[in-house]
Design goal:
Number of domains: 2
Distance between the termini: 16 Å
CATH class of the largest domain: Alpha Beta
Helix content: 40-55%
CATH topology of the largest domain: Rossmann fold
Largest sheet: 7 strands, parallel
CATH architecture of the largest domain: 3-Layer(aba) Sandwich
Length: about 400
């Protein structure tokens, strides 16, 4: 069968790659055409046997945009991408279209595929429980089957009359199979030519806008930490985001305060987190990865002022981090907008390292989050359910 998958950002590329492995496992002759990234492309290159016009159509780095103001200023490009995607779907005529998160783009595609009678799955439901609840009507109208990845979503969608499918969280699979969980610290240090000194991990986000707002804060945070005698020997490592390069970080490192001494490492995000004493993480999938990797963290998030003001009016949730949402309590601290500054980050990271009871409590909350997510096998289970649904008569 022919599958058309659309993932618009780094987390979607990760989950899409695992889903593709599941599809090929159940349907070895599958032909998959997709919008995604390097991880999905690697799976395609290693697994695809059918050919038939499959492969990467467009890389997510060409269009990943977040925030109300950012979307507004890039509206022309987004509309062009949507038109191109619709045309490509019609030309290829897939048996199913699989949408992964990325709601601003994917809802436009869902309406289109529904009108053309193409079976449409939504994998990793849009966060309508946080904002824009009006999209529920579109989910009911356009989507043949909705797959959710957080246990707290089950009662929510049931209350809205949507029979959503929960088969676990695919990030559990990704972490369990990662080299980060299956290597020694010595192997990691040797591979990256690092000294055997404690590490503080820093994740500035995957989009250019996130990097530009977080990097000045992170460089000042590193300078202040290094100025403390007990942290002078620590290594401060930026986990370079997928599909980004040193060009995205260099301007900030060149202008960094003297003494910040930061290194950027690409392709090692999970290992950098896993082998760190603590981590500063931009909110998103990475914060949940950090939970699963069992590294104490503080989440820091800064958006444009306009995006923040709009979000304050329409976002209905208590937390911005997935781990905290899963247990509905502050398992780890979130520093948002003006609170996300070097002084506060220094204070929190020091507490995570120096206060053993505080650290132990956080790791205890992590265990509760992992238990709520369940075990491995989500990607294979979702792929199997999709294929089973596709073979049924509509």
């Amino acid at each position: 069968m022919k599958y058309y998958i659309i993932a618009g950002e780094a987390s979607g590329d990760l989950h899409g790659s695992n889903l593709m492995k599941g599809i090929y496992g159940k349907d070895p002759d599958a032909s998959i055409r997709f919008w995604g990234g390097d991880l999905m492309n690697q799976v395609y290159a290693s697994k695809d046997k059918a050919g038939n016009g499959g492969g990467l159509v467009r890389h997510y780095k060409e269009g990943a945009i977040m925030g109300f103001w950012e979307v507004f200023t890039h509206a022309g490009k987004l509309l062009g991408n949507i038109r191109s995607c619709k045309k490509d779907i019609l030309s290829w005529q897939p048996d199913a279209v699989i949408l992964i998160d990325y709601p601003g783009f994917n809802f436009k595609i869902a309406g289109f595929t529904h009108r053309h009678g193409i079976r449409t799955f939504y994998y990793i439901a849009p966060k309508v429980w946080a904002s824009r609840e009006g999209r529920i009507r579109k989910l009911k109208q356009y989507i043949d089957r909705l797959y959710i990845v957080f246990p707290f979503e089950i009662p929510y969608f049931e209350s809205k009359g949507i029979d959503a499918v929960y088969l676990g969280n695919p990030l559990v699979d990704s972490i369990a199979a990662s080299k980060a969980m299956n290597e020694s610290r010595e192997e990691f240090l040797k591979r990256n030519s690092l000294e055997d000194k404690p590490i503080i991990a820093m994740l500035a986000g995957s989009r250019k806008g996130e990097i530009s707002t977080m990097m000045p804060v992170l460089t000042e945070f590193a300078r202040q930490m290094k100025a403390l005698p007990e942290y002078a020997g620590y290594q401060f490592i930026i986990a370079g985001a997928p599909a980004r390069s040193m060009r995205d970080y260099s301007p900030f490192l060149e202008n960094a305060p003297a003494g910040s001494d930061i290194r950027v490492i690409f392709g090692e995000t999970q290992s950098v987190i896993r082998h760190a004493e603590a981590a500063v993480v931009n909110s998103g999938t990475a914060s949940l990865e950090t939970v699963l990797l069992d590294t104490p963290q503080v989440v820091g998030y800064i958006s444009s002022r306009l995006t923040y003001l709009i979000a304050k009016r329409i976002v209905k949730i208590r937390f911005i981090s997935l781990g905290n949402l899963i247990v509905d309590k502050p398992a780890f601290r979130e520093l948002i907008q003006d609170e996300c500054n070097a002084r506060n980050l220094v204070s929190e990271i020091r507490a995570l390292i120096e206060d053993k009871d505080y650290r132990a409590r956080m790791l205890g909350e992590y265990a509760e989050i992992r238990k709520a997510l369940g075990g491995t096998g989500a990607s294979k289970a979702v792929a199997a359910d999709m294929i089973r649904t596709m073979t049924q008569i509509r």
